[in-house]
């Protein structure tokens, strides 16, 4: 089949990575999959023109509102993949909720990453309960064997000679929903007590306005230091570093070398970075939100924190308790291997796309 695949394709966001992976699954089954950014289209007529021009037979959308609403009324079968913010945020807006309900009426299937996401969707749109499937994201990590950790530390301006160096990596595109500033003040205070701990924020500049805010906070001095100690090296949040985006293979290598992964997002569908850390046997400390709690079982596959102070307490505990670290790492890896098989994900999507073949029902 010739398939249109609509997704939000801002570089290196979770949805963009998922879309590329799903496209690969579908093309491996012999389908032609034309991946387009949903933000490039404003009117349904533009989709109609694209369908005609490319002789498309079916469609798929990642994100029920942003992508799915563009597929209504074109008389081609389509399926939906929930993105996370469609359930966690858009469903709370009455007009968007109604639009998404109508999209689900037309869709032949919908995919949720977790059972909790499926339950949320069924609660919002009971008429769609029989067409919602659960398929966790498949994970495959590919760390660059030639990656140089010492060079990474040097670029991050981290003191490589610090005793018992502990680097916490926060991987995210710089946008508000990822809330990369959530832990900055608490972490800076901790670093001033223990200079061997660092947090490195790694990711692309997705939102230009928010990026400027992040840079101002991370690279400028605390208010007290700006007038008390103008000559000291405090023109940044102490112990916090900001890096630009990295190639996926290098990012996986950096992740494998750090002490722990941090996730401080306000909302998540299913964090690929958390799953990749588990696969690479790196401990996870994640903000206690529904999307993260669906992946991280506190004290078993990772640690969940509800505020910055609790994050610091748990991070200190993890550093001081190697047995806990080993247990979390082992359980996290086992969880990924059991529930996030890349091959199983491929088989599911190749099976579901078969539901888009043949005439529309009814």
Specify the number of helices.
15
Low-confidence stretches: 220-235
Largest sheet: 6 strands, parallel
Proportion of residues in helical segments: 40-55%
Mean pLDDT: 90
Strand portion, in percent? 15-25%
Name the helix and strand elements from N-terminus to C-terminus, one letter apiece. Answer: EHEHEEHHEHEHEHEHHEHEHEHEHHH
Q: For the largest beta sheet, what order do the strands appear in spatially?
A: 2-1-3-4-5-6
Q: What is the general shape?
A: elongated
Global structural class: alpha/beta
Cα end-to-end separation: 21 Å
Radius of gyration: 22 Å
Number of DSSP-assigned strands: 12
Give a structural overview.
- The model is unreliable at 220-235 (pLDDT under 50).
- The chain has 362 residues and is of the alpha/beta class.
- The radius of gyration is 22 Å and the shape is elongated.
- The protein is 42% helix and 15% strand.
- The strands form 2 sheets. The protein has a 6-stranded parallel sheet with strand order 2-1-3-4-5-6, sandwiched between helices. Strands 9-8-7-10-11-12 form a 6-stranded parallel sheet, sandwiched between helices.
- It has 15 helices and 12 strands.
